[in-house]
Every structure is written in C-alpha cells, then in structure tokens.
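Protein modeling request. Please complete all fields; requests missing the sequence field cannot be processed.
Requester role: graduate student
Desired output: 3D structure, token encoding
Chains: 1
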Amino acid sequence: MMKLSMNWMTLRVRNLEASLDFYHRILGLPVERRFESRGKQIVMLGIEGQPKLELIEGSDPPVKPECGVSVGFEVRSLDEAMAELSKEGIPVARGPIAPNPSLRFFYILDPDGFEVQLAEHM
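Delivered output (122 residues):
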C-alpha cells in the first residue's frame, strides 16, 4: 500500500486578491510563495510542515461552491474566532454545531462561496 501524506488542496478562485485578503489577512494563513504559471497567478498559503492551500486565479471555478467541497481549520477558541470574524463583517453561515462534547465548529463562506469550517477540539 502507498504511504501518502496531504501536500496541498487547490481552489480555483475568481479574484485572487479578494481570496488572498480572506485567507491571509483575515484567517492568518501565511503566504509561502506567489508565482505565475501558464499565465495564471498562483499563491501557496500555509504553515511550514502542514498541508498548503493553493489559490489559482481563473474565470469561473470548475467546482461550484454547492458541490460539497469545504476547507477546514482548527482554532484555539471558537468564540474568539467568531468575534474576530464578526469585526471583519463575516457572518457565520452555519453553526456553531457541537456533534459531541469534545468538538464544536461553524462554517463561513470565502469570497467564492466555498465553505470554510473552523473547529475547536476541547
């Protein structure tokens, strides 16, 4: 059996600057590198040693937000995350949800409408 580890997840976005503002400035993912490939602007975001989020600017994303794809992140405090996002004018799309005593999470939407899950393990 192959031994795999997650490398990155790609989102094709309509407006790279809007997505970069959301994922870098608001959510705090560091920019690892930014480059151009075959005429498309690409940004790799993420923390060293963890899987990256690759944003590629294009026209309409080939995967529509309602297809069920979401990106998930762990936070220290769900309440603090909700307060920070509220200050930025970003509403909670769904939640908070507590499926068991050790997990709480909620969803927000990125600029393209993709769901972003923020979770706190207690």
